[in-house]
Design goal:
The chain is α+β, with helices and mostly antiparallel strands and about 220 residues long. It has 2 domains: about 90 residues, no CATH class; about 120 residues. Helices cover about 60% and strands about 25% of the residues. Strands 1-2-3-4-5 form a 5-stranded antiparallel β-sheet. The two termini are about 55 Å apart. The relative contact order is 0.09. The N terminus is likely disordered.
């Protein structure tokens, strides 16, 4: 517990005897340390004569001032405790956010690599004439350009220290959703090329493309 209050009480009862005189003495001292200030309350009764003393850090005060200083010290301690709890929760929250941010960047970087490889295969100059555009894969050339643009945006986000988690997630979801569509677009183009092409050299190149994709 961050709050620091210590209390000690001392009660003394005794008799003090002088020739022909007997004194009854009763003393009670309570000491508290609050917010690094020492509060002492002393009560004493000597032969029925009662008096009190209130001391804060070795300075005598009246009761009202003593009470006011004590309340203020408690408030300061509580405020410091609240600040301590707040800062601890904030550190934990920020640590969790940084961890999720780092993980999302790694996931996005991996997805970027996969999309880049697919775009590299698709952009083979000999394969371009055999593209088959479909709504369920790639609708048109503009969509390929859009994917390339989103890819550049994602790369910038991975490198940017000020990236927001939601930006990384949005780009990750989009690029991840395009992987299967690009794969199918690539295989559709290859199938079209193999069906329509009669040049042995190109057919061999297309076969190598298929083999390379199978190895991945």
């Amino acid at each position: 517990m961050y709050l620091r209050i210590s209390m000690a009480s001392l009660l003394f009862i005794g008799l003090k005897c002088y020739p022909g005189i007997v004194k009854t003495i009763k003393i009670e001292i309570t000491q508290e340390v609050i917010d690094n200030h020492t509060f002492v309350h002393k009560m004493e009764d000597i032969n029925g004569l009662y008096k009190e003393q209130w001391v804060v850090d070795n300075s005598s005060l009246d009761y009202e001032e003593f009470k006011k200083h004590k309340v203020q010290a408690r408030i300061c301690e509580l405020e410091r405790e609240e600040q301590h709890i707040y800062e601890r929760r904030k550190r934990l929250f920020q640590a969790d956010y940084r961890a999720r941010l780092a993980l999302q960047k790694k996931l996005l970087a991996h997805t970027i690599d996969r999309v880049e490889q697919l775009l590299a295969s698709i952009s083979n100059i000999h394969l371009i004439p055999y593209y088959i555009y479909k709504a369920i894969t790639v609708s048109n050339e503009e969509q390929i350009e859009h994917i390339e643009q989103k890819l550049r945006e994602a790369e910038n986000l991975v490198d940017d220290n000020e990236s927001m988690l939601n930006q990384l997630q949005e780009n990750y979801v989009y690029l991840e959703s395009m992987i299967s569509r690009l794969q199918q677009f690539f295989y559709d183009a290859l199938e079209s090329a193999i069906d329509r092409c009669d040049e042995p050299r190109l057919l061999k190149e297309f076969l190598e493309l298929i083999n390379n994709k199978d190895e991945e």
